């Protein structure tokens, strides 16, 4: 019998682990407090007073809405492209063995393994070399490239668990490739794709390093935020935007977690 | 005989979809090719193409007088990396990346160990989300939070004043290299923010490595007379090492290439990322910017090669 599961942790370890988690979370909680501060000119703590006024001010700022709109559109389209490319790649890699298979995994991971600034400057110099003017699409081009890996990772993990015999059974029963994809493969990988898509959306929505090189004059929300960080104009508005960004990015992460949590229970996975 | 053949071999399917479907089944290679072409074209042309074009540019040089790029093969741009002011930037970045990686490993280990060995049920979920949420939450918001914390009028100063420890902060800021006039414009500040932003990437691989260590191995070590320190040194640490190396790939690479953290929280001395940004932007010296960006690629290449030999990829 294994005796290793009923011991309790030493006190020192509990404290170290707890302190580590607190270190990760307290700074984010502080953002929530500052969104309500009445102080305009500095980052004074404790806040002299609390107010809801800055929510109204932020609501009426057209530049914030414009940046938010651009970010959402870029993230949506990049996610759509990444979903198609990532799923295709994952399907090819997990279904068959072929020469250069390892290289493809490496190629997919590379845009996120290399520092973002390299991806950014490489794209920028390529755009200027090919004389492509900066636009909405240049941002999407960059974002989709590094979003592929997130979808790919989720899809590959799920494909590994979907039993190959299910697909053969479907074919044996007379379904063609498209019907098999529609009725067998898609329902099994659906939640993994949704989770991958949500993470890709969150990744794109938050990306700033590559975007600074591919955006030209437009601001996505992170670029707007970066400008405020470098040259603060109205600090309370930044505080409110920061809080909203935290909430908006938490939702897809939680959603992705609940979707992939039961990933072991896909059909044919028990074998 | 022929009746058997008739029922077991189905007739060809009609329509375009049916014929395509038959083709895919008989020649899986075509399906594979169709599936691989779009992602490979995208990544190959847009990503690798740009990357290779960038690397080629590092072998060009810039004309000092006209400021135009001289399209002749030369290594002179790389030689510029070795002049003291540029070499300092590389050295500073690498030292910072090493420090951040070591500190992240130290802070991440207890969290990963607790999550892997002791956390059960509800606590397992809390630990998982407790790492995932900060890891995925907005990069700029995280930096912004630290700007609030480290500011002179911010919460850290307030907290230390309550504890009557302000003299400690002042003594630290008076130190030569790590100090400065305030934490938010010192190396110490940059260091803390780097740890904060990249440390979650260290926890998950260590946790994955530790999940595979059976608990009775630890007990066996204790039974054989090893004290906790010896158990850690000779049993736990070697088994966790692939995970630590896998995590360090992220912390090291991300620190090497970052240019926003040291720009917002840090002294005015440059890191590699800032040098690349400045060279391609205001200075317009794309060849030097390209040469600078080759440095992290080469360092990461060596690092990945060593990590692979240590078996770190199994822990990813």
From TrEMBL, chain B:
GO terms for biological process: transmembrane transport. Keywords: Cell membrane, Membrane, Transmembrane, Transmembrane helix, Transport. Its main location: membrane. It is a multi-pass membrane protein. The chain crosses the membrane at residues 30-56, 89-113, 125-144, 156-175, 187-210, 231-252, 286-306. It is found in: Cell membrane. SUPFAM superfamilies: MetI-like. Residues 90-307 form the ABC transmembrane type-1 domain. Pfam families: BPD_transp_1. Belongs to the binding-protein-dependent transport system permease family. CysTW subfamily. This is ABC transporter permease. It comes from Shinella sumterensis.
């Amino acid at each position: 019998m294994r005796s290793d599961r009923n011991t309790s942790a030493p006190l020192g370890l509990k404290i170290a682990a707890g302190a580590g988690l607190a270190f990760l979370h307290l700074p984010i909680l502080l953002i929530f407090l500052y969104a309500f501060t009445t102080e305009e000119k500095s980052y004074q703590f404790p806040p002299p007073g609390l107010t809801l006024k800055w929510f109204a001010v932020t609501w009426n700022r057209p530049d914030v809405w414009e940046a938010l709109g651009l970010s959402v559109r870029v993230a949506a389209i990049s996610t759509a492209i990444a979903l198609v490319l990532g799923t295709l790649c994952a399907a090819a890699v997990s279904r068959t063995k072929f020469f250069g298979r390892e290289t493809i995994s490496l190629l997919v991971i590379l845009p996120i393994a290399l520092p973002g600034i390299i991806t950014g400057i490489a794209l920028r110099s390529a755009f200027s070399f090919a004389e492509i003017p900066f636009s909405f699409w240049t941002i999407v081009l960059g974002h989709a490239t590094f979003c592929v890996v997130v979808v790919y990772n989720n899809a590959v993990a799920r494909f590994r668990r979907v039993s190959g015999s299910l697909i053969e059974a479907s074919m044996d029963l007379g379904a063609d490739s498209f019907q098999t994809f529609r009725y067998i493969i898609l329902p099994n990988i659906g939640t993994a794709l949704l989770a991958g898509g949500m993470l890709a959306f969150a990744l794109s929505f938050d990306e700033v390093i590559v975007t600074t090189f591919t955006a030209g004059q437009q601001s996505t929300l992170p670029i707007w935020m970066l400008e405020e960080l470098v040259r603060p104009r109205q600090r309370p508005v930044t505080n409110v935007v920061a809080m909203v960004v935290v909430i908006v990015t938490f939702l897809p992460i939680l959603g992705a977690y609940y979707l992939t949590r039961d990933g072991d229970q896909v059909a044919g996975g028990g074998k | 005989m022929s009746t058997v053949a008739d029922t077991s071999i189905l007739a060809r399917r009609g329509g375009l979809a049916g014929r395509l479907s038959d083709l895919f089944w008989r020649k899986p290679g075509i399906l594979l090719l169709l599936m691989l072409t779009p992602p490979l074209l995208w990544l190959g042309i847009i990503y690798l193409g740009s990357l290779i074009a960038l690397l080629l540019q590092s072998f060009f040089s810039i004309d000092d007088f006209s400021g135009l790029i001289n399209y002749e093969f030369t290594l002179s741009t790389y030689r510029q990396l070795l002049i003291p002011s540029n070499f300092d930037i590389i050295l500073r970045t690498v030292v910072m990346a090493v420090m951040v990686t070591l500190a992240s490993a130290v802070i991440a280990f207890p969290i990963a160990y607790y999550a892997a060995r002791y956390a059960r049920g509800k606590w397992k979920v809390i630990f998982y989300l407790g790492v995932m949420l900060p890891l995925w939450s907005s990069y700029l918001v995280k930096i912004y939070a630290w700007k609030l914390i480290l500011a002179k009028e911010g919460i850290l100063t307030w907290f230390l004043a309550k504890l009557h420890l302000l003299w400690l902060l002042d003594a630290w800021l008076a130190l030569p290299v790590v100090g400065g006039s305030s934490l938010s414009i010192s190396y110490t500040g940059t260091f803390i923010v780097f740890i904060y932003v990249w440390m979650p990437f260290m926890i998950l691989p260590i946790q994955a490595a530790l999940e595979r260590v059976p608990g009775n191995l630890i007990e066996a070590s204790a039974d054989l007379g090893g004290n906790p320190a010896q158990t850690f040194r000779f049993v736990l640490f070697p088994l966790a090492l692939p995970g630590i190396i896998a995590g360090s790939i992220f912390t090291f690479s991300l620190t090497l290439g970052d240019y926003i953290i040291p720009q917002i929280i840090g002294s005015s001395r440059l890191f590699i990322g800032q040098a690349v940004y400045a060279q391609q932007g205001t200075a317009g010296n794309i060849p030097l910017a390209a040469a600078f960006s080759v440095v992290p690629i080469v360092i990461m290449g060596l690092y990945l090669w060593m990590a692979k030999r240590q078996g770190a990829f199994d822990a990813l």
